[in-house]
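Why does residue order matter? Because the sequence determines the fold. Keep that principle in mind as you read this record.
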Amino acid sequence: MDGSRKKIRVAALSVLSNGALVAGKIVVGSLTGSVSVLSEAIHSGIDLLASLIALIAVRTSGKPADPEHPWGHEKVENLSGAIEAVLIFVAAIWIIYESVEKLLHPRPLDSVALGVGIMALSSIVNIAVSRALFRVGKETDSVALIADAWHLRTDVYTSLGVMVGLGIITLGGLFFPKIDLVWLDPVIAICVAVLIMKAAFQLTRQSIADLLDTSMPENEKVWITSYLRHEIREAFGFHRLRTRKAGATRFVEFHLLVDPDMHVDDSHAIADRVTADMRERFPGCNVTIHVEPCDGSCKDVCVAGCLLDAGKRKVRSSQFKAESSD
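Structure:
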């Protein structure tokens, strides 16, 4: 199965699981009167919307480049991540508002065991689905799927928190009936909201970084420079290295300096080899190489990426000056 189909299938699984959990939490939250369960229903509702956005994003990002989108559609995944982050912030604010209302106007909870049950089920389902999303997201380097996975993983933690809170309220009522622990329900809901906002901030930072054409991660840039320094022995140097990332696609651009007497076919063959090697390391990588003759002038921009030792550099510079004087 190709990467695009795997992404679509796991995104659809997330949509189905979130839809079922939203329905279950709304019913249980309404029956118990628990604002923390209802806040989890809203959280799962946002997850459902995020899953739908992720599904649309992975379907769209898989489309090939066309005349209107010559660089492809990969940034749709980054855009979806940014939208999901905004939705998470909205959900968190709503949860905090409802929780404060519950603190100011408390009322007893009913059928707390139902709340514990739906939270346990939610945790189990989301652990399984988030693992699948993380696995496929990392295999295909999908920002949208990894964002969706983090949504569900956050839901696991918050569901467990709500479950523990409801459990404490239940046990407190059995063993310490005179102590009112109902206030724990909205307090836990506020903690849920804080965790949600933290996840939203991290997702926003990652999505916007790629939308603004931030460079590839440092370890990947180190690999590129090391490869150019040690594997391309025919090259005299390189400079103006630029990288960026859109969705799962990486873009690498640089100038490669070669012997001025090198035949065009030979320089083209070097460029093809470099492109193939980089695509093997970064599948789907878009590589642009500007081949230039090394004139020996050693400008500041060239020195950092010069692959000639000091002796050879002097020889090249002398040859260039001699040719220029002739």
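The longest helix spans residues 143-175.
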